[in-house]
Amino acid sequence: MTRKELAxxxxxxxxxxxxxxxxxxxxxxxxxxxxxxxxxxxxAVVVLFEKRRHNMGWAAAFWGGIFLDLYSTRFFxxxxxxxxxxxxxxxxxxxKYVRIPSFW
Amino acid sequence: xxxxxxxxxxxxVVIISSGMIAxxxxxxxxxxxxxxxxxxVGPVQKNVWFAGSQVYGFFGSFAHMNSSARxxxxxxxxxxxxxxxxxxxxxxxxxxxxxxxxxxxxIGKDFDLKLADIVAKNIAGDSLIINKGSSNMIEVGMxxxxxxKAVVGKISKVYDDFSEVDLITRKDFxxxxxxxxxxxxxxxxxxxxxxxxxDLVPKDKELKAGFSVIxxxxxxxxxxxxxxxxxxxxDKNDIGTFQTAAISLAFDINxxxxxxxxxxxxxxxxxxxxxxxxxx
Lengths: 104, 280
Prior knowledge:
B: 6-stranded antiparallel beta barrel; elongated
């Protein structure tokens, strides 16, 4: 595992703490923010801007899912499946229909 | 051979990962893992939670600026009403103290209260995580309230040192309540997104904005007389048999950093009954 991958996983862990401890306060005045999931967004950003042959998106989805599952009231693995499905979908769309310049 | 190996490795990783995730759904393992993580991350979360409340306190005033002018007008009207009502309060206070001594309906009769800090909140799922668990004799189903006796929710899952609390605003949460001075029966239903409504109120019963909503012993979840909130917007459908109303909740997640877990000394209601028996 590279240093960059470790940094992204650590960032996802930090985002989960923000999600469950800090973000709820933002959602109080603006109701729709309660549906904003920082980890989902971060994984989407990773998968959108990684090079096509890289697999960081899958790893980010797996670890992000584990972190979210630790605070979820649903069964363990729910968020892992959701995020992996999202990565698969985004990769499929990118492969077939879109080309985005990669930044790393 | 190398080709087969290179294809088998990812498949093996997926199978092992899936197996591990499935194993982590075993309740004892799941609880152990979550409790361990919460123990490690808990102190950090507490500080982040506190920082969030500070930021919200600062920016919240800007967010509510638009409605402040309108509220100001309404409050001026309310001041006049309250000035008149204030005159009666002295008399009522004496009466209240007398009744309190006579009836002895303190919540401590039925419950041991345990103080807990809120360490995390899942606002989309309407649940909290608090820093008291089975090591503090916390059990599933125990009511969670604030120091103002406002109902927060009930314990839904217990770990060694932490517990999950389902808020009363959670979508599948419902319980019996009494409304207003006439103690009209109703059912509070969570609507998600930190809001709840009162339902199943017969149409022939009068509902007015501002009527207080309190818990009823009938529900079996909360002791009677705890505050839920006040009636806000009433929906009297012409077709239906019942009327519904939105509730302005007494529990404010913004100001809350601590809650009480009510540990029942007796089955609900028995405490008061025993107290009556002792007097006789």
